[in-house]
Amino acid sequence: MAGLEVDREAVMDGEREVLVAVTDGRVLGALVLDGAYIEAVAVRPGRRGRGIGSALVVAAAARRDRLVAEFDTKLRGFYRNLGFDTERIGESRYRGELP
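== GNAT family N-acetyltransferase ==
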């Protein structure tokens, strides 16, 4: 995506790090990492499906040896497309790991 700066703004708080996707000075999305664990990925509703969340996860992967996430069934494809190995951990929950 042209003009998207994924790690232009990164905030550190101990092991916790926030990556922010910004274009033209506007925040489009953010990812919160706690060590290797992805706590949250959020993208503005009108900007979803345009690769912003994927770009945030790729940027996070460049900062860590591995990534781990827990997510609902509807996000399984998103994480699998990014290379995460996924396993069911509940009725509608999955755990994914990107080695």
